[in-house]
UniProtKB/TrEMBL annotation:
Compositionally biased tracts (Low complexity): 516-527
Organism of origin: Bacillus suaedaesalsae
Protein name: ATP-binding protein
Spans annotated as Disordered: 516-536
Length: 670
């Protein structure tokens, strides 16, 4: 491929300046890469029909240095000399179900085409409604991952309706360094920027992407990359000559916690995808378009692969988007007056939140998952207690940032060491502004405009010479709602009677079978738990747990004590899921307005020894999704006090099960 060296002139960029354009020093380079690359792919999938997801795969490949370098005129010998003696790696980003790099090959005929914006232009903002970018600077992160060399390959439908392969190469380097890769020209000021492609004209040094399929296949093969198949459209960005050790940063945040993902680039990317795209990753309920079908090294990231914190964030996000009552989380509308066309209760959005225990986040042995602060690379500013952790996100589904102090958290109480307050704010993006301008007409556009080039914060802006404080009011309302909920809950707790039956069966633990994945089998250690709950008070009817143990099969065997009055003729022993907002029944759990999945706990067998003359039919009760979650039991007209055994299983390690007894026509006992 022919080399084109950019000339340095008036009002032009240099390689050194490009590398500093988005020099974010707060986020690790791999986080910046994941955020930018995935957002570009999601934006490119907005207008593509026939798919409900956007495919994105990020991973590592081997390089055949000599076979790759021979295609880059002007730097072939330099690359072989510098990298040819040792094994080299390339990082790739592949998407599909996207438009690809469309537009005329010659940018002068299509200055707004995708191909020019990504490869040849700079500071060209994304204008598609619902897109993430608004500055056009994020792509500069690609030049900082390796040595500044980036290969762009795309498969598109061109203007003639024909499939077309396109490939071009860019190099951006600091031209002020003593040893540079781009050859210097006598009498010319070095720019630090070069492209490789085919000549626009035989006598011209200007280049456009190559379309020769044979040459493209050769170049891709040298990078261990497969070309797109017929009918599959998308873009692959390959960044050769990466240094994996330099990309991996060992964070000093909570140094006592082990962070397995900081020892392998693929593992880090796997967590970074969850960290920034939990609301959209593998989320088929995502409301604002296509969900993210994420892969790492070709392997799909399923929800079962998520760290517990990011599963919860996705569920909270869905709850905030769709509204309605939740038995799992607190959900509050955020309303701001005098800025929007209407004063609906949720005109600014909703916040969902909950206090999670270490047990719920798999932080206890044997799983030992790191704390939420470590999972999101944030320091806990409160020391021995835990600061709140608040995420905020807009329509594209990328979490803008996580706040542990400052305006989002000011005045919120800290939690004790064993629990964590986690919240997510989701704006009502379609809310129209009362006094819009041409660029900012709704809340989504306002927040998009308020973000910095690296999209890591919101700040208020000026519209029509008038400064607004929408972001400030949102943060204030979020704080007030969270604070009020927990203050009210504490008041209720103080008024409750201390003579209450203990009833938690406890969370089922899984053995660790590898980082980032749920185990495939249950903890099978037997034994009886201490601190057996006892019956207190003088209730005529009661149900209490005596002991429990795991059988070799992984089933939990629960021994219980049952006391029933003479007039009780029919009663139910039922499983519930404990949550911050109360007990969740199988019906509520499976509702589309709630979790919407099959109830995760199941009763297998119940026996009441030597009581056949008192108890009649024992009937299993199934949920709407055919999960046996209770036993309905008949009793003769006689008082009884006896022991029984219930066997149950739980398919979700992140929930806490309760067993409760309810007599026909009465309240729950347990």
């Amino acid at each position: 491929m022919h080399i084109e060296i950019a000339e340095f002139g008036k009002m032009s960029q240099s390689g050194n300046s490009l590398l500093k354009l988005i020099q974010n020093n707060d986020l690790p380079i791999l986080d910046l890469l994941v955020r930018e690359a995935i957002q570009n792919s999601l934006d490119a999938g907005i207008s593509v029909e026939g798919h409900n997801s956007v495919y994105v795969d990020i991973g590592i490949k081997d390089i055949n240095v000599s076979n790759f370098a021979k295609h880059l005129d002007g730097i072939t010998e330099r690359l072989i000399e510098k990298f040819g003696d040792t094994p080299q790696k390339a990082l790739y980003i592949e998407d599909a179900n996207t438009t690809g790099l469309t537009g005329s090959l010659d940018f002068r005929n299509s200055p707004n085409g995708n191909i020019f914006k990504l490869i040849y232009g700079i500071s060209m903002a994304q204008e598609t409604p619902g897109a993430g970018g608004s500055w056009g600077l994020g792509k500069t992160v690609y030049f900082r991952v390796g040595i500044g060399l980036v290969v762009y390959y795309s498969h598109i439908l061109n203007d003639n309706g024909q499939y077309e392969h396109r490939l071009a190469v860019t190099l951006v380097e600091n031209e002020k360094l003593k040893e540079t890769i781009i050859p210097k020209s006598n009498g010319k000021v070095p720019s630090g920027i070069a492209w490789w492609g085919q000549r626009v004209e035989p006598s011209s040094d200007e280049t456009i992407p190559i379309t020769d399929q044979d040459m493209i296949r050769e170049i891709l093969k040298s990078l261990s990359i497969e070309p797109y198949e017929v009918g599959r459209l998308g873009t692959k960005i390959i960044i050769p000559f990466i240094n994996e050790n330099q990309l991996l940063i060992k964070h000093e945040i909570n140094p006592t916690e082990t962070k397995p993902w900081e020892y392998n680039v693929a593992d880090y990317i796997r967590v970074a995808m969850q960290r920034w795209y939990a609301p959209r990753l593998a989320n088929e309920k995502y409301r604002y378009g296509k969900y993210l079908d994420g892969h790492v090294n070709g392997e799909r990231l399923e929800k079962d692969d998520f760290l517990p914190l990011f599963i919860e964030l996705q569920l909270m996000y869905n709850t905030a988007v769709f509204g309605g009552k939740s038995n799992r989380y607190f959900v509050n509308d955020i309303q701001i007056r005098n800025y929007f066309e209407h004063n609906k209760a949720n005109n600014a959005g909703r916040v969902a939140y909950k206090k999670f225990t270490k047990k719920e986040l798999d932080m206890l042995a044997p799983l030992n998952v790191p704390s939420p602060f470590t999972c999101v690379n944030q320091k806990n500013p409160k020391g021995e207690q835990n600061a709140p952790l608040i995420a905020y996100v807009r329509k594209p589904g990328m979490i803008v940032n996580y706040a542990t102090d400052g305006e989002w958290c000011k005045g919120l109480v800290t939690t004790e060491d064993h629990e964590y307050l986690v919240a997510i704010f989701v704006p009502n993006s379609d809310t129209k502004l009362l006094n819009p301008d041409d660029d900012v007409f709704d809340l989504e556009a306002y927040l998009r405009k308020s973000e910095m080039a690296d999209h890591t914060s919101w700040t208020d802006i000026i519209i029509k010479s008038k400064p607004l404080d929408i972001v400030d009011k949102i943060r204030s309302q979020v704080r007030r709602k969270i604070k009020a909920s927990f203050e009210h809950k504490e008041e209720i707790k103080e008024k409750q009677s201390m003579n209450k039956l203990a009833r938690n069966v406890g969370k089922m633990l899984l053995p660790p079978t590898g980082f980032g994945r749920r185990a495939s089998s249950r903890n099978r250690a037997g034994g009886t738990r201490p601190n057996t709950p006892t019956i207190k008070g003088n209730r005529v009817n009661s149900f209490s747990i005596v002991s429990q143990k795991y059988l070799d099969s992984g089933v939990l065997e629960v021994h219980f004590q049952l006391k029933l009055a003479k007039n009780v003729r029919l009663f139910t022993i039922e499983l519930f899921i404990a949550s911050e907002g109360g007990k969740i029944s199988a019906t509520d759990w499976e509702s589309e307005d709630s979790v919407g999945t099959p109830f995760p706990a199941q009763v297998k067998h119940i026996s009441i020894p030597n009581k056949d003359e008192i108890f009649g039919n024992l009937q299993a009760v199934q949920s709407g999704r055919k999960v046996s979650h209770a036993f309905r039991i008949e009793k003769i007209d006689k008082a009884v006090e006896c022991l029984g055994i219930l066997e149950l299983t739980c398919l979700d390690p992140h929930v806490q099960v309760e067993i409760l007894m309810k007599q026909e026509g009465s309240e729950v006992n347990g």
